[in-house]
Amino acid sequence: MIKNIVFDISNVLAPFRYKEFLVEKGFDAAMIKRIIKASAMTPYWTEFEKGKLSYDEAMAAFVSTDPDIADELHKAYASCSGIMGRYDYTEGWIDALKTAGYKLYCITNFTPAGYEQCYESISFIERFDGCVFSFREGIVKPDPEIYKTLLRRYNLIAEECVFIDDTEENVLSAQKLGMEGIVFTGYEDAAARLDRILK
């Protein structure tokens, strides 16, 4: 019997507006591609999400991959405010699940800067029964340990949990531990699939 719904946050409950965010900072498509390659596509980004690198250390690492765009990288990440947005359906989905008696949790890969500067966009987590953030644990999905951390911390049974994430690899990792899993491709599809599992 399912008792717990475990969500990813980015692109499931709140949009990660990465490209839009960089466009709003005045970068063209070619520069955006270069910024992403020098930062989010490097192993340094994962270390940033693990909380292993401070903001200054992460920036120095990004710049080291493409020194010619040092100014652009600093401009891009001087503030992360606006990189996360809001979905219209999130609060209603949370309301419905809470009203039905389910416990809500999240496991999410997040940088400390993103958490601190975009909290308003994810403030719905205050209604959750527990959250595991990668930067606090030093672990990122799909490492099984991040799922085990949630289970241990909140005394959950894997077979009583459904995990919803927009990345198939992350869902498969949860399923290997005994959780039900849904690969998120859109709200209506995910909500319908969740309803079928819960019934």
Q: How would you describe the overall organization of this protein?
A:
The protein is α/β, with parallel strands linked by helices and 199 residues long. The chain folds into 2 domains: 126 residues, Rossmann fold (3-Layer(aba) Sandwich); 60 residues, no CATH class. Helix content is 47%, strand content 12%. It has a 5-stranded parallel sheet with strand order 3-2-1-4-5, sandwiched between helices. The model has no long low-confidence stretch (mean pLDDT 96).
Task: Give a quick rundown of the structure.
This protein has helices at residues 18-24, 29-38, 43-49, 55-65, 70-77, 90-99, 112-117, 134-137, 144-153, 168-176, 187-198; strands at 4-7, 103-108, 130-133, 161-165, 180-183. With 199 residues, it is an alpha/beta fold.
Would you state the CATH class of the largest domain? Alpha Beta
Strand content: 5-15%
End-to-end Cα distance, whole Å, is 9 Å
So how many helices? 11
Integer count of domains:
2
Reported for the largest beta sheet, the result is: 5 strands, parallel
Strand order of the largest sheet: 3-2-1-4-5
- Mean pLDDT over the residues: 96
Number of strand elements:
5
CATH architecture of the largest domain: 3-Layer(aba) Sandwich
Please give the oligomerization state of what you see: single chain
SS class: alpha/beta
Radius of gyration based on Cα positions: 17 Å
Poorly predicted tracts of residues: none
Order of helices and strands: EHHHHHHEHEHHEHEH
CATH H-level superfamily title of the largest domain: HAD superfamily/HAD-like
The proportion of residues forming helix, as a percent range, comes to 40-55%
Give the overall shape. Answer: globular
